[in-house]
Write a structure and sequence with these properties.
By secondary structure, the chain is α+β, with helices and mostly antiparallel strands. The protein contains nine helices and ten strands. It is elongated.
Length: 275
């Protein structure tokens, strides 16, 4: 009998802990004033039609933290949208063609979507992540979103804080990319531009730029933001050399020399007088 009573008390204790685990986060949200916004059927339809899932989540969550979002307009941003953006007091971080990177707050998402000139909005992330993006890649990001080709594959060079491992490979795959090559902390990956914001969620990636593939060999460029040391760069280049450019080497015997084989100076103009 006592054994049954003991089991009953233990079961009640486990049930109490489970109930506490469920209701404690809800109580904490109420205590700190956290409220999830609810939308009308019209607003919900607008969010589903013109915003990506992550942006819908941010609009629902509310809050006051700003974030960068990619806005695709029906017309050229500079020529047609400059005045309206100025009147709206929105911060334009960058623009190219009919797309722009805007700094938004959650409560500004719906008003933006209600603007007939806006075709769609996509989440990018905190503004600080743009510092880890090569400027030319940022423009390519806007061009692809503006043209609706952000799902086409491209090659990117990721610079990690170190050589990386299984965790980094899992994150790359979760963003929709595959690893093409690795050379120390530098990885070339292939995938859609739409997965770029997800890649930047990893703080272990310190810089991202475009990478080309020539004859099956990754072709990249050095940037001043790299934290590689000179020995690390040499090791990388020895491990993963750049492709041949087709240059013709000068044969050693055709290279003009300052002295002859006896170590004596050769005077220009055929004068062989020894000085």
């Amino acid at each position: 009998m006592s054994d049954i009573s003991h089991r009953s008390r233990k079961s009640r204790g486990i049930l109490s802990l489970l109930l506490l685990a469920v209701f404690l986060p809800l109580a904490a949200g109420c205590l700190f004033g956290e409220k999830r916004r609810t939308f009308s059927s019209r607003e919900d339809a607008l969010l589903r039609a013109k915003a990506d899932p992550r942006l819908r989540k941010e609009a629902e969550r509310g809050g006051s933290e700003p974030f960068a979002a990619i806005a695709v307009f029906r017309n050229d941003v500079f020529l047609e949208q400059s005045e309206s953006l100025l009147r709206s007091s929105l911060t334009v971080l960058n623009e190219f063609g009919n797309a722009a990177l805007l700094l938004l707050h959650p409560n500004q998402v719906l008003p933006m979507l209600e603007d007939p000139s806006v075709r769609r909005l996509a989440w990018f992330g905190p503004q600080g992540r743009l510092a880890r993006l090569d400027p030319s890649l940022e423009l390519d990001l806007l061009a692809r979103f503006g043209g609706g080709t952000e799902d086409r594959e491209l090659n990117l060079l990721l610079r990690f804080v170190d050589v990386g491992g299984a965790g980094e490979e899992h994150h790359v795959a979760a963003a929709g990319f595959r690893v093409v090559t690795r050379a120390g902390p530098n990885w070339v990956v292939g995938g859609p531009m739409s997965g770029l914001p997800k890649l930047l969620e990893s703080e272990r990636i310190i810089f991202i730029e475009k990478a080309g593939i020539e004859h099956g060999v990754p072709v990249t460029k050095e940037v001043p933001h790299s934290k590689e040391t000179i020995p690390e760069i040499r090791d990388r280049e020895n491990t993963n050399p750049l492709p041949a450019r087709g240059d013709t080497a000068i044969h050693p015997h055709k290279i003009p020399r300052a002295e002859n084989d006896n170590g004596m100076s050769i005077i220009p103009g055929g004068d062989q007088t020894v000085k």
